[in-house]
Structures are given as C-alpha cells and as structure tokens.
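Q: Rrf2 family transcriptional regulator, please. Structure only.
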Amino acid sequence: MQYSVGVEYALHCLVYLIDAPSNESIGIKDLAEFQGLSETFLSKVFSKLSKANIVISVPGVKGGYRLSKPPEDISFWDVIEAVEGPKPIFQCKNIKDNGYLYREGCCSAPSSCTINLVMLSAEKQMRDYLRKKTLAWLNEELDRDLSKQVREETRKYFSKSNK
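A: Structure for Rrf2 family transcriptional regulator:
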C-alpha cells in the first residue's frame, strides 16, 4: 500500500493555511514556490481538496485557498480520501470461487472470505487512527518539533502584509 505524493503535498500545504486569517487566502503559486513543488500538480491536488470541502477557493487576483472548516475538523483520513479517492486498499477478487473444490460443487463456499475480513479489519483500524490525527494535532506537533524561528518565518512568508 502506498499513497501518492499528492497526500504529502496536501498535508504540508494545509498546515500553512491554518494561520491564514479567515478573510484571507493563500495562492497556489506561493504554496508551490515555498515547497519547491510544481504549481500545476499542486493545483490538481487542491482541486480535489476543494471538491471534498476541505478548502475553499477564493477567486481573483489576490485569490487562493483557505480552510473550509476548523483544523480540528479536518483529519488525515479526510485528506487521504480527498486526494486518493474512496476505493479500498485491498480489493478482494474472490479467487477462492475459482478453486478446484468450489468449481466442482463438492464444497459449499463460506459466506465470507477470511482473508478479506482480515484485510477489511486492518483497513478500518488504519482509517480510525488517521481520523484521530487532525490538522490541529499536526500544527501542535510542528510547534513542538520545529524551532520557534522556523514557525514564525513560515507564517511571515504566507502573510499577505509581507507580499
């Protein structure tokens, strides 16, 4: 299982939107430039985040994006599902139905495949864990892990008053 780099880009960029005043937005160009990312690719990621109601697009020359709800209401799983889509990680193909005994009809297949049940349970546990990790939690972790200077310089970079 592997999530696309779009998930990482999205999570990093969403953290920068947390401190934006509610009447301001941050442009894709600034977000892409700050992280050394492709503006085109990041636009596609933010289009998905917008469709999932994680961000709001603000049109105009000074437009951009801002969070659509408080950071404590946006989980890692919300972002993953927005960027990757809702498909399950494990996709059972019911290959047991092609097995010799089932083909010949001498055994009745169990109603649920044990392998599928284990994989679905593991996915559920992962989703539940990622739903508990929010942008607010991530922001607090970054406050602990990064120097105060780095956090302040990042906020200044995205401040409209410095542009």
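A: Brief note, in case it's useful. Strands lie at 55-58, 64-67.
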